[in-house]
Amino acid sequence: MSDVCSLTASGLLTVDAALAQIKASLSALKNSEKIALQNALGRILSAPVIAAIDLPSDRNSAMDGYAFSSADIQSNQSFTLTLAGTSWAGRPFTGKLHAGECVRIFTGAVVPDAADSIIMQEQVSAAESVITFPANCRPFQNVREIGEDVKQHSLLLDAAKKLHAADLGLLAAAGISEIAVHSKVKIAIFSTGDELVPLGQKLEPGQIYDSNRYILNGLLNDACFEVFDMGVLADDKRLVEQSLVIAAENMDVIVTTGGASVGDADYIQQILTECGEVNFWKIAMKPGKPLAFGRIGKCTFFGLPGNPIAVMATFEKIVKPALMQLSGAAMQKPLRLKAVCESNLKKSAGRLEYQRGIFKQNEQNEFVVESAGQQGSHILSSMSRANCYIVLAQECNGVRIGEEVIVEPFEVFL
Ligand code: AMP
Ligand code: MG
Predict the structure, then answer these.
(1) 308 touches ligand 1 (CB under 6 Å)
(2) Per-residue pLDDT for 358 more than 80?
(3) Tens digit of each residue's pLDDT (9 = 90 or more) over 360-369
(4) What kind and span of H or E run contains 172?
């Protein structure tokens, strides 16, 4: 149960308190698997990876040029060295470099032991095997040292890291072809409601197309999730109950939309109270007040509101962080920026509000934001236009043009 401090004056649970309760009751799923590196984009490491080799593992050149010893430099005057051979990328110079000699070298090629400096080819003049170096030639330049990127036996990547393209490159550079990752979180999504009609069918009066499953499929498009689209459930208590109980046996998470409030046809509450352990929260956030969170057997359950924008907001602010925790990923706070508001925004105190905004940089490079339009929780067109949330604190009671606001850019636009 929530303590008094986590409730607002009107008895709603604050977003932070809801998140804290969810996080405290969930932990990363235990299953992990070994996968090939080429399939690892977006997956989450289940164990730290230690570097088996130094990176770079040879001293090599950062330039196409000439490798030489700084002991040969004549300060303030130009000097010549004799060309002793060539070090190619993948084909090192195998001879020995003596005083007074240099080696032609290419980017990535091994630097001979006796050399400690490389000069760009544009800065020398070459006449057969006599290479003339300029005055004030600088020592120790353009050599990539062993281990300067990663030291052998050091931590290459830590557990809980979500792998992006650079991580795949780093693992490949270190010679790692297989890694241990958390298994994908298996998530079933259901829409509920007698009024919902699948695409392709003509609408009768009172019917609407089911948009929530398309939204959720989009929001759940992540390599660490495996999504099972279970379709639409009519408002039939037995049908909903059977479907949820069966899904719970095979899934890690069930997400439903609709039917979570207290209308006559809202069976989700009744069912979950009977066959699971579920909290029904009125959350102090707009859009998205009602939210059910709990468990059916071992399966975590989220019952989201029906209105599409309430689905998006509660998903992103509450469900997504919880899913990331189940997936084993390290937690990340959303990026927040300050921007000058170019619209008047209506709000009354009481709930934290996520208003849809359009955010940009003006000609002075300042961040500015305007309202994306109507803010009703059924208005999808303004969400489609928006590229950020304007985050308005619980106590805020409106914003006037020119005031500074907090903006959270949508992840897809970062
Ligand atoms: P409910 O929470 O079931 O009372 O639904 C609240 C509002 O959301 C109603 O206007 C529903 O018609 C609408 N709604 C519920 N599910 C969906 C859905 N899958 N797609 C679009 N709108 C929905
Ligand atoms: Mg409904």
Answers:
(1) yes
(2) yes
(3) 999 999 999 9
(4) helix 165-173
B/e letters for 204-235, b = 16+ CB within 10 Å, e = fewer, are eeeeeebbbbebbeebbebbbbebeebebbeb
State which ligand 1 atom lies nearest to the alpha carbon of 235.
3
Structural contact between residues 49 and 177, judged by C-beta atoms closer than 8 angstroms: no
* Residue extent(s) of CATH 3.40.980.10 domains in the chain: 4-31+183-326
User: Domain spanning 337-409 has what CATH number?
Assistant: 2.40.340.10
**All residues at 6 or more sequence positions from 298 whose CB lies less than 8 Å from its CB, including other chains:** 248
The listed CATH number (3.40.50.720, 3.40.980.10, 3.40.710.10, 2.170.150.70) that belongs to domain 4-31+183-326 = 3.40.980.10
Cα-to-centroid distance, 230 and ligand 1 (Å): 16
Q: Which fold has domain 60-141?
A: Molybdopterin biosynthesis moeA protein; domain 3 (2.170.190)
Which run of H or E residues covers position 34?
strand 32-36
Question: What are the residue ranges of CATH 2.40.340.10 in the chain?
Answer: 337-409
Distance from the alpha carbon of residue 259 to the mean position of ligand 2, in angstroms: 4
Instruction: Please state the atom number of ligand 1 nearest to the C-alpha of residue 305.
Output: 2
Query: Considering only CA atoms, which residue is closest to atom 22 of ligand 1?
Result: 307
Using the mean position of ligand 2's atoms as its centre, give its distance from the Cα of residue 258 in Å.
5
- Residue 275's beta-bridge partner residues? none
Q: Residue 168: what residue type?
A: L
**pLDDT score at 5:** 59
Ligand 1 atom closest to the Cα of residue 260 is 2
pTM, to two decimals: 0.92
Assess whether the C-beta atom of 263 lies below 6 angstroms from ligand 1. yes
From 189, 213, 232, 257, mutation site for ligand 1 pocket: most ligand atoms within 8 A of C-beta: 257
Ligand 1 within 6 A of CB of 210: yes
**What is the rounded distance in angstroms from the CA atom of residue 35 to the CA atom of residue 26?**
25
Q: Considering every ligand atom, which ligand is closest to the CA of 262? A: 1
